[in-house]
Design goal:
This protein has 14 helices and 12 strands. The chain has 369 residues and is an alpha/beta fold. The protein has a single domain, classed as Peptidase S8/S53 domain (Rossmann fold), CATH 3.40.50. It starts with a strand and ends with a strand.
Length: 369
């Protein structure tokens, strides 16, 4: 079952379907990422495809744990109106139509902020709808993420040709690289140079400045406000004896990609918070992915990643599919004990269903599929 709608409508729909032990699946993979990367025009098509493929695989992964209870999907993206989309993503039009460094710089900052603060705002809204509807003693799966590293990954993908054998793709990728370079303050004469040595220097400078630029979002007032709101909503939601399970992210290999794109041997430097999901906090259970008997190369790993589980569903892989395996197990534990606190269930999951990988910190979900 997938429910959608703006908050008041969604709350009313949820109130008729409140059952302790339900697994709620929040999925946003058709909204922020698609618009921010591909533009407003592709939203409807991309969202429809996402709902049918990504959401279905998330549910399948939860079912593969043996969970047979209710799964309710929350898809709140499709009801945003044109004015709301324009307000949040209007910078895309400035990016597409301008080559002015100041305009591009502002548009880049707005893009980075929209990706991360937008994820927090949307997730807070979804969780608040569940809270207002009276959801209690249940589990929420969030196979979504935003972070510094995910922002870098998105921009790098934008600057690389989708098909290196197609001249139009190569030309478009170079145009995007030039825009990013100008936005990062690299002089236009260097950006537009055909000298191979100068172009190499520009590429090197883009990589260094880009990593620094994405980190500035952490201190933006709108991001800090969105993060504070999210943390407050999590506290409220968990107070109703709910568990929140979050995907760690799939960008662990991005630093290697950046280093390979660099023509110099000096390692790029990344902050401790570079990989951390914006949705991770002290009240959430963060899940990474396994690939057979090892931590998957793509799976982000940082101190708050507490459990690793099988990240494969059919031919697809990702922490998105490891997360519902943990959420499904938690939901079964919740159905068996409606009085336990979330922390007690988390400890029970680790003690009885997981194998310690690093004592006291990281666990492998033993029930692999």
């Amino acid at each position: 079952m997938v429910l959608s709608g703006k908050s008041p409508d969604l709350v009313e729909k949820l109130r008729t379907r409140i059952t302790p032990g339900t697994l709620y699946v929040l999925d946003s993979f058709g909204f922020l990422g698609s618009i921010a990367q591909h533009g407003l025009s592709s939203y409807a098509m991309y969202a429809a495809a996402s709902e049918e493929t990504h959401g279905k695989l998330v549910n399948q992964a939860a079912r593969e744990t043996g969970f047979q209870g209710n799964i309710v999907g929350i898809c709140n993206d499709g009801d945003r109106d044109a004015a709301e989309l324009k307000e949040r993503f209007g910078y895309l039009r400035h990016w597409a139509s301008s080559n002015d460094p100041e305009v591009l710089s502002e548009a880049l900052d707005q893009r980075l902020l929209a990706l991360r603060a937008g994820t927090l705002i949307d997730t807070s809204g979804d969780l608040m709808s569940l809270y207002q509807a009276g959801v209690e003693k249940s589990v929420v799966n969030m196979s979504r993420s935003s972070s510094q590293v995910k922002s870098v990954d998105m921009l790098i993908d934008m600057m690389l040709p989708q098909d290196p054998d197609k001249p139009e793709d190569v030309q478009h990728a170079r145009q995007e690289r030039n825009k990013v370079a100008l936005a990062l303050g690299i002089p236009r004469e260097k950006v537009e140079s055909d000298n191979p040595q100068v172009r190499s220097e520009v590429r090197e400078e883009i990589l260094k400045r880009l990593v620094d630029r994405v980190a500035t979002v952490d201190h933006h007032p709108e991001y800090l406000k969105a993060k504070e709101t999210y943390d407050t909503v999590i506290e409220l939601f968990v107070s109703r004896q709910n568990s929140v399970v979050v995907a760690a992210g799939n960008q662990q290999e991005v630093p290697d990609l950046l280093q390979n794109l660099s023509d110099h041997k000096t390692p790029l430097k990344f902050s401790d918070s570079f990989f951390v999901s914006d949705l991770s906090n002290a009240r959430t259970l963060v899940v990474g992915a396994m690939d057979k008997d090892e931590i998957a190369a793509y799976s982000c790993r940082y101190p708050s990643v507490q459990i690793f589980a099988n990240g494969a569903v059919g031919e697809e892989q990702g922490t998105s599919f490891a997360t519902p395996r943990v959420a499904g197990m938690l939901a079964m534990l919740r159905q068996a004990d409606l009085q336990a606190r979330p922390g007690q269930l988390h400890a029970r999951l680790k003690q009885h269903y997981c194998i310690p990988m690093v004592e006291g910190q990281t666990y492998l979900l033993a029930r692999q599929v």
